[in-house]
């Protein structure tokens, strides 16, 4: 039995989640009838399974719009239905039977009633022979959403471990196997069996690293090491990554099996250059690489390992002028991205356990939850925004990795105070620069250290901390990995239209410059670029029209 303090803490944790969370429902007073209560329990049980949460929650006494605690007069245990106790009626109507708990809670004088509802297993929870689900904030019948039903039915199934009966070792790529053995040997050079590895047959090696199972080809074996032409064995499921260039130039390419080798070919596609920072307290610039190759590989391999292959969707990597976007099907399987920021959380379950084990053995990922932490650490050490998962949903994981600065104050702060900032402070400052919501205690922590200014919710990183001399315009002129690309776009425009006025280039670049710049700063950026091109003798001004020099 939970104590009242534990219940209050649980309510506070539930109220801290996004209002779009499907496995939490707040109700003011007793705003539901007895039958609808049973439907809610069914819907929340099923929604919890789809969100990979162990429980769903229904709380009476919290305003469903504001999530403010208002109290309730609802008394579940005293209610009757069809001549019997409501509790008996509800439990009898649920199939399969689930043991939900009901807790009364005194929340600082306000009465709450809390339902803690177990997630369904591989069979949906029904009420009176109908399964329900919450979509956004609406309760509806599960049968209207066959994809959700399919996911529940497959929720206890590790597809990556399943045997592909007609496939043989001849359907695997010999070069991929050889490279896998080479990396495995390197990883295990201190192990007692190291000297035996060269003598292993391919079949022995593949069983040893849990790619195959007793010599039989698994879906994992095909995903990682399968020949390109063996993709039909997985159909309709897909083992493919699409790289898409979305800048002033546009291109795309599909990469199929074996993904163990193809991730390096995708890495080679991504344009990587040096980026310069100009901190105020240093005489020379700080130069870092735009993207860390290890971060890119970590992101790609995480997509492969945790993709929901039942969704029959490819992984998409979009390269923009200032960031990389990784999209993979299926939400986080346990918890959310921020749970792994500190490197202290270890996942207890996985969507594709067999695939995960094979990738760990082949040194593609780790199984301790350190991957996100390593990406975060790399971005921090290069003074860039942290990995951003904020656009992820229950249906897909979206990771954005920035290859430029969003807010000069944030970057300068990391450069000038890199040894004095705690990781928690860096994470919170990153939220501020991205205009994401932070809690009141977090804001107080940052404000007390002089790291942020402004009023809720419009906080911003303190310019006095990061910029002693206030050279904002000079920095904006000097900074910018985009400059090279912007100049090319402007030159192409002049070539095509025999010149252009400044307003033409302002419109041309408006959506391509960082969102952190306001309208005036974007116009100043265009003005500075034109002047720099003129000084370099690349263009000249003919009246109001800028033209290319012959």
UniProtKB/TrEMBL annotation:
Domain of life: Bacteria
Stretches assigned to the Schlafen AlbA-2 domain: 20-141
Listed Pfam families: HATPase_c_4, SLFN_AlbA_2
InterPro entries xrefs: RecG_C_sf (IPR038475), Schlafen_AlbA_2_dom (IPR007421), Schlafen_AlbA_2_dom_sf (IPR038461)
Protein name per UniProt: Divergent AAA domain
């Amino acid at each position: 039995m939970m104590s009242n303090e534990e219940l209050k803490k649980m309510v506070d944790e539930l109220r801290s989640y996004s209002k779009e969370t499907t496995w939490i429902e707040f109700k003011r007073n007793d705003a539901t009838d007895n039958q609808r209560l049973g439907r809610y329990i069914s819907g929340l049980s099923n929604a919890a399974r789809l969100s990979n949460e162990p429980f769903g929650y229904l709380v009476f006494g919290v305003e469903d719009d504001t999530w403010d605690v208002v109290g309730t007069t609802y008394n579940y245990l005293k209610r009757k239905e069809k001549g019997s106790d409501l509790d008996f009626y509800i439990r009898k109507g649920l199939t399969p039977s689930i043991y939900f708990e009901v807790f009364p809670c005194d929340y600082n004088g306000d009465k709450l009633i809390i339902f803690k509802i177990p997630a369904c297993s591989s069979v949906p929870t029904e009420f009176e022979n109908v399964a329900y689900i919450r979509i956004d904030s609406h309760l509806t019948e599960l049968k209207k959403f066959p994809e959700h039903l399919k996911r529940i039915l497959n929720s206890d199934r590790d597809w990556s471990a399943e045997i592909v009966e007609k496939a043989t070792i001849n359907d695997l790529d010999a070069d991929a196997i050889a490279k896998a053995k080479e990396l495995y040997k390197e990883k295990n050079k201190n192990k007692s069996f190291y000297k035996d590895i060269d003598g292993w047959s391919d079949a022995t090696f593949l069983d040893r690293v849990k790619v195959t199972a007793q010599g039989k080809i698994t879906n994992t074996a095909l995903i990682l090491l399968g020949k390109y032409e063996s993709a039909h064995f997985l159909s309709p499921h897909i083992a493919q990554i699409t790289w898409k260039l979305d800048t002033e130039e546009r291109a795309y390419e599909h990469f199929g099996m074996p993904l163990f080798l193809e991730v390096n070919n995708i890495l080679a596609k991504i344009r990587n250059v040096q980026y310069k920072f100009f901190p105020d307290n240093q005489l020379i610039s700080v130069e870092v690489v735009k993207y860390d190759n290890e971060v890119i590989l970590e992101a790609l391999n995480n997509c492969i390992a945790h993709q929901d292959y039942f969704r029959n969707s490819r992984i998409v990597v979009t390269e923009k002028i200032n960031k990389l976007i990784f999209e993979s099907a299926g939400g986080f399987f346990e918890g959310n991205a921020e749970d792994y920021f500190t490197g202290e959380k270890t996942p207890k379950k996985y969507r594709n356990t067999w695939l995960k084990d094979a990738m760990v053995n082949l040194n593609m990922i780790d199984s301790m939850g350190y991957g996100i932490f390593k990406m975060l650490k790399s971005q921090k050490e290069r003074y860039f925004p942290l990995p951003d998962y904020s656009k992820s949903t229950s249906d897909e994981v979206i990771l954005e990795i920035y290859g430029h600065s969003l807010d000069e104050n944030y970057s300068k702060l990391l450069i000038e105070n890199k040894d004095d900032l705690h990781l928690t402070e860096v994470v919170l400052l990153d939220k501020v620069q991205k205009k994401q919501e932070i809690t009141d205690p977090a804001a107080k922590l940052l404000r007390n250290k002089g790291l942020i200014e402004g009023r809720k919710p419009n906080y911003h990183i303190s310019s006095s901390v990061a910029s002693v001399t206030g050279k904002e315009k000079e920095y904006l002129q000097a900074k910018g990995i985009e400059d090279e690309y912007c100049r090319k776009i402007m030159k192409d425009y002049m070539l095509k239209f025999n010149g252009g006025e400044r307003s033409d280039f302002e419109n041309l670049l408006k959506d391509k410059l960082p969102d952190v710049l306001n309208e005036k700063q974007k116009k100043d950026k265009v003005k500075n670029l034109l002047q720099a091109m003129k000084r370099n003798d690349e263009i000249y001004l003919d009246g109001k029209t800028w033209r290319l020099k012959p």
